[in-house]
């Protein structure tokens, strides 16, 4: 039970939003039932160049166009919404898996150690980073910490977009983290490790999960010379050589509807992995209202925002 009176508690978000280079998507989920119900979703397109995710530069280039798209998407799902959970592109942040022999008892001391290590890897001053982290797997006698680092002014850009649209972003998080969150809620097998490939027009991220803990994460931006199947092949080699991998129990592809030839990408991944690549099945995670079809394209469009919203409401 919360120690705070109900009128002092911060209300959970009622809407999940995802913003990417091509569109803004709003997802309405009813989480009070025995199984969460996806009541509706809507998206509004963005003009080319309106949002350019970056670690080192401003992300928002056409603020009015993005705010207008946010408002349209929210209006289309209906209802009154103030608090939202916002999923943003992976390429706006730097994700690191940092090993520690010992974890300080004080969160402040741990943050100082994380910032010290990040000075070697982030392309901006570590003191300017806004951090989020969680414990990862044990490795030998130490522990891995999964860290996301993002420039504070970039975080404020995304929060400012929501504020201009009449919304409050209670949570801002990376899209693929919450695709993985959604998969781990019950949409994957518990036999063996799980490979998750999240593909969008702007980037593709690859994550490996073992016993509900992330042991690998890599993001490939759209302008990289390596193709997504090559990155997945390299991930497989690293997984087998360095992570004591004994084979993926399941490989999942979650692709935005804006990704060209999703089926062709799935076939290439299958060839590189020598095993089937499946779509994320949400049947064991949530049900869908009559007006929402759970096609692969729909799941690819709503997975990040849905995973983030369900995490925030504790459903």
Fold topology:
Layout: E1 15-19, E2 23-30, E3 37-45, H1 63-77, E4 83-88, E5 94-100, H2 107-118, E6 129-139, E7 142-151, H3 152-164, E8 168-174, H4 175-187, E9 193-199, E10 203-210, E11 213-221, H5 228-242, E12 248-255, H6 262-273, E13 287-288, H7 296-313
Parallel strand pairs: 1-4, 3-13, 4-8, 9-12
Antiparallel strand pairs: 1-2, 2-3, 5-7, 6-7, 9-10, 10-11
Helix pairs in contact: 4-7, 5-6
CATH class of the largest domain: Alpha Beta
Taken in chain order, the helices and strands follow as EEEHEEHEEHEHEEEHEHEH
| Total count of domains | 3
Query: How far apart, in Å, are the first and last alpha carbons?
Result: 16 Å
SS element count, helices: 7
Largest sheet: 6 strands, mixed
Spans of at least 5 consecutive residues whose pLDDT stays below 50 are: none
How many individual β-strands? 13
- Secondary-structure-derived class: alpha/beta
- For this structure, the CATH topology of the largest domain is Nucleotidyltransferase, domain 5
**Please, what is the CATH homologous superfamily of the largest domain?**
ATPase, nucleotide binding domain
Q: What is the topology, as strand order, of the major beta sheet?
A: 8-4-1-2-3-13
In the CATH hierarchy, the architecture of the largest domain is 2-Layer Sandwich
How confident overall, as mean pLDDT?
Answer: 89
């Amino acid at each position: 039970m919360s120690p705070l009176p109900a009128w002092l508690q911060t209300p959970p978000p009622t809407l999940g939003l995802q913003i990417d280079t091509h569109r803004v998507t709003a997802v309405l989920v009813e989480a009070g039932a025995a199984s969460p119900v996806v009541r509706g979703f809507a998206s509004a397109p963005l003009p080319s160049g309106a949002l350019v995710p970056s670690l080192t530069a401003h992300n928002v280039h056409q603020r009015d166009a993005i705010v207008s798209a946010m408002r349209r998407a929210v209006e289309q799902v209906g209802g009154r919404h103030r608090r939202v959970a916002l999923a943003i592109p992976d390429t706006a942040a730097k994700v690191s898996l940092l090993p520690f022999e010992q974890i300080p008892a004080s969160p402040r001391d741990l943050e100082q150690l994380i910032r010290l290590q990040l000075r070697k890897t982030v392309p901006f001053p570590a003191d300017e980073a806004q951090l989020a982290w969680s414990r990862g797997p044990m490795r030998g006698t130490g522990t891995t910490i999964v860290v996301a680092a993002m420039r504070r002014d970039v975080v404020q850009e995304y929060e400012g977009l929501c504020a201009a649209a009449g919304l409050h972003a209670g949570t801002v998080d990376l899209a693929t983290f919450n695709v993985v969150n959604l998969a781990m809620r019950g949409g994957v097998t518990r036999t063996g490790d799980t490979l998750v490939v999240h593909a969008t027009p702007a980037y593709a991220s690859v994550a490996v999960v073992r016993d509900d803990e992330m042991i690998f994460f890599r993001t490939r931006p759209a302008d990289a010379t390596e193709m997504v199947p090559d990155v997945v092949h390299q991930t497989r080699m690293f997984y087998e050589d360095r992570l004591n991998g004994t084979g993926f129990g399941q490989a999942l592809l979650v692709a935005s509807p804006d990704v060209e030839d999703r089926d062709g990408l799935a076939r290439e991944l299958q060839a590189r992995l020598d095993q089937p690549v499946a779509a994320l099945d949400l049947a064991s995670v949530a049900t869908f209202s009559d007006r929402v079809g759970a096609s692969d394209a729909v799941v690819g469009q709503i997975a990040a925002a849905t995973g983030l919203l369900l995490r925030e409401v504790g459903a």
